[in-house]
């Protein structure tokens, strides 16, 4: 068995899900059910400088995710799939597949515990755009999403959850989907106007 290399994923993550109000999983840490009783989510990750698997540089690569959870997040039986930007080479693909499947342990190890079906990792053109406060994620013919932070009482400052024990990040910006379409693996989702979130990630392993 090949040794697991030290790894880091730094950058930004967005999620758009089926919850009608902000996702209760962030605060309850998966102990409260999603507002629809199940969770259907697409996400995007933009990897920045400092992302690596051993000597393999992962910075500048965009990733799109599909996550489907049948009930309580903490009970598992998730279905997960991933799209990695077509500019990733074979070494980067192998490294990211190990990380996203949980086999590289560390932050994403819970995927190996909670995911019942890992449908695969595929290469597509994945575009992650930052336009002021707005974030856009596009995978041709598969994902067309745009999220925007919800503004708080102080002008120009979004609603933010701080000091969370949420596994993804301890600081989460509350957002809403302006556009949220996902079509793949027999799924046809449109979550416009529903819950979304934005955060900075700093994941590592093993």
Number of helices: 3
Strand portion:
over 45%
Helix content: under 10%
Shape: globular
- Spell the H/E element sequence: EHEEEEEHHEEEEEEEE
* Count of distinct strands: 14
User: Could you tell me how far the N terminus lies from the C terminus, measured between alpha carbons in angstroms?
Assistant: 15 Å
Helix/strand structural class: mainly beta
Low-confidence stretches: none
- C-alpha Rg (nearest Å): 16 Å
Features:
mainly beta, 206 residues, globular
Description of the molecule:
This protein is mainly beta and 206 residues long. The protein has one domain (7-201). Helices cover 10% and strands 48% of the residues. It has helices spanning 25-28, 90-100, 110-114, and strands at 7-17, 39-47, 52-53, 56-57, 62-69, 78-85, 115-124, 127-131, 134-139, 143-149, 160-161, 172-184, 187-190, 195-205. Strands 1, 2, 3, 4, 5, 6, 7, 8, 9, 10, 11, 12, 13 and 14 form a 14-stranded mixed β-sheet that branches. The longest helix is centred in the middle third of the chain and has 11 residues, at 90-100. It is globular, with a radius of gyration of 16 Å. 41% of the residues are buried. The model has no long low-confidence stretch (mean pLDDT 95).
């Amino acid at each position: 068995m090949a040794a697991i290399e030290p790894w880091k994923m730094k950058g930004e993550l967005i999620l758009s899900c089926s919850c009608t109000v902000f996702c209760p999983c962030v605060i309850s840490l998966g102990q409260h059910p999603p507002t629809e009783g199940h969770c259907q989510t697409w996400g995007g990750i933009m990897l920045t400088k400092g992302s690596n698997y051993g000597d393999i540089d992962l910075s500048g690569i965009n990733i799109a995710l599909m996550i489907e959870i049948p009930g309580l997040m903490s009970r598992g039986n998730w279905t997960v799939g991933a799209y990695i930007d077509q500019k990733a080479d074979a070494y980067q693909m192998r490294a990211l597949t190990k990380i996203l499947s949980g086999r590289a342990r560390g932050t994403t190890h819970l995927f190996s515990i909670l995911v019942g079906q890992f449908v695969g990792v595929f290469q597509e053109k994945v575009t992650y755009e930052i336009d002021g406060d707005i974030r856009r994620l596009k995978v041709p013919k598969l994902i067309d999403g745009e999220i925007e932070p919800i503004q708080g009482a102080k002008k120009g400052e979004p609603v933010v959850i701080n000091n969370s024990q949420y596994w993804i990040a301890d600081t989460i910006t509350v957002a809403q989907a302006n556009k949220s379409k996902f079509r793949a693996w027999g799924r046809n989702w449109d979550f416009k106007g529903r819950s979304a979130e934005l955060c900075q990630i700093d994941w590592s392993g093993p």
